[in-house]
Amino acid sequence: MKRRLTPLVVAAGLLILGGCAPANSLSGSVGELFSLTFNSVDIRKDSEAFVVTYYFTQSAQKTTVIQLHVDTDGGINFSPGQTIDLAGEVSPGHPRTSVIHFDPSAGESALVLPPVSKGSLSLGCGLQIGQESCGTFAMAFVNDGTLGSNRTLTGGFDGTLQDGEFPPDSGYYIDAGPWDAGVDGG
Predict the structure, then answer these.
(1) Rounded CA separation 82/86 (Å)
(2) Is the residue at 152 inside a domain?
(3) How many structural domains comprise the chain?
(4) What angle do CA 112, 116, 120 make, to 5 degrees?
(5) H helix count then E strand count, the chain
(6) Which tens digits make up the pLDDT trace of 91-128?
(7) Rg of the chain's alpha carbons, rounded to an integer?
(8) Which residue in 119, 108, 111 sits closest to 67, CA to CA?
(9) Domain that includes residue 103, residue range
(10) Which of 13, 31, 49, 164 is 20 to 30 Å apart from 183, CA to CA?
(11) Is-contact 162 50, C-beta < 8 A?
């Protein structure tokens, strides 16, 4: 009998080896809920957050396929070669990692996936604004009965790191506190 390797196991292997997954990739069982097809990637960082957003643009319609938001507060060593735990909370009620999907053509608000039960982000190269930034991530979501429960997501990213000022109406849907101009208007 052949054993299949799950995407989470494959991505974890890539993380352990320290290499980058195929540049700009997405896979996992969340792909059974919505398409993981994308045609551009935006990578941003500031002193409080690291955000990788995968977009699919067709005609004038822009879909946020996946937006991975990692809160960098709490003494994280956010530098090349480091692996960051994506599970848990920075403070009570404030998760380390948030993941969303938003398809405006569906006429619904952004889908915030369940909290991450286990996962990691491996940083492979430069993390200075204007430099190439690459890495991989793999995660599993908690089974809380909501859409996305008990699903997996893996990916790779490679592109120029942009300044993470996250202006209002910039397409960043996760509220990261008063600095991001998100839900709380900060």
Answers:
(1) 12
(2) yes
(3) 1
(4) 125
(5) 1, 12
(6) 898 999 999 999 998 888 899 999 999 999 999 988 88
(7) 16
(8) 111
(9) 7-161
(10) 31
(11) no
φ, ψ of residue 120 to 5 degrees: the values are -150, 155
Q: How far apart are CA 87 and CA 49, in angstroms?
A: 15
Joined tokens for residue 133: 């930034």
Contact 97, 119 (CB under 8 A): yes
Q: Is residue 70 part of a domain?
A: yes
Question: Please, what is the end-to-end C-alpha distance for the chain in angstroms?
Answer: 55
In a domain, 36, yes or no: yes
Tokens of 34: 């919505």
In a domain, 169, yes or no: no
pTM of the model: 0.80
Label each residue of 119-137 as H, E or C. EEEEECCCCCCCCEEEEEE
Report pLDDT digits (tens) over 124-146.
988 889 999 999 999 999 999 99
- Flag whether pLDDT at 151 surpasses 70: yes
Q: What mean pLDDT comes out for the span 154-180?
A: 67
Tracing tokens 């990637």 back to the chain, one arrives at 41
The arithmetic mean of pLDDT across residues 11-39, rounded, is 75
What is the chain's length?
Answer: 186
Instruction: Give the position of tokens 């896979």.
Output: 27
